[in-house]
Amino acid sequence: MDEQRIWAPWRIGYVAGDESLKEQTLVPQRWSPGAEEDCFLCRAAAEYADPTGADRLNLVVARGEQTVTLLNRYPYTNGHLLVAPLRHVGQLHELTSEEHLAAMKALSTFTELISAHLSAAGFNIGLNLGRVAGAGVPGHLHWHLVPRWSGDNNFMPTVAGTRVIPQSLDAVWEVLRNASEGENGS
Question: Which InterPro entries match (predicted)?
């Protein structure tokens, strides 16, 4: 049997521990309230002179009045999204009622869009509160929306410690950004 290779060049920053990615070279015109400049979610929520170009680099697929939705740069599966409030808050009780509702609406909208455009058969939706609970960014609350397909949990993670992501982040960004703009009538 010939050895097969799986290429995932976007993972090198994570594997090498280099978090200085492209989005950090962008200079926001306006930050959201309470923003922290070293928080990638705050950078995604910020406003830029070239919003479409900045959104593509920051992997933002949709913006709302209260939330930002972006692709996870280190996805568990194809189409793995993060939904975060625009404000830099780390606890559920710090969210306003409007922010709670907006986050749930974004999650609901994207389960529909991903089902329709990426043919997902199900979803895992989760939130880690605090570093001991697994939060990689404990200061900025965010939900993970992880699309699932029948048979997507194959032997690779168990045997090889590798996840197979069948589509590039850029290709998924195109699909979901266009679907989101169609949903919002933009």
Answer: AP-4-A_phosphorylase, FHIT, HIT-like, HIT-like_sf
**pLDDT digit string, tens, across residues 43-97:** 999 999 888 889 999 999 999 999 999 999 988 889 999 999 999 999 999 999 9
Instruction: Classify 33 as helix, strand or coil.
Output: coil
Binding-site residue set for substrate: 72, 134-137, 144
| CB contact at 8 A, 122 and 115 | no
Q: Which two tokens stand for residue 62?
A: 């949709």
Tokens of 77: 């599966």
Nearest to 181 by CA among 27, 69, 32: 69
Q: What is the DSSP string of 108-146?
A: HHHHHHHHHHH---EEEEEE--SGGGT-SSTTS--EEEE
Take residue 137 and report the two structure tokens written for it. Answer: 């960014």
User: What string of DSSP letters covers 70-118?
Assistant: EE-SS-SSTT-EEEEESS---SGGGS-HHHHHHHHHHHHHHHHHHHHHH
Q: Give pLDDT tens digits for 111-121.
A: 999 999 999 99
Catalytic residue among 80, 88, 140, 142: 142
Higher-scoring residue by pLDDT: 11, 152: 152
**Structural domains in the chain plus CATH codes:** 9-184 (3.30.428.10)
142 is catalytic: yes
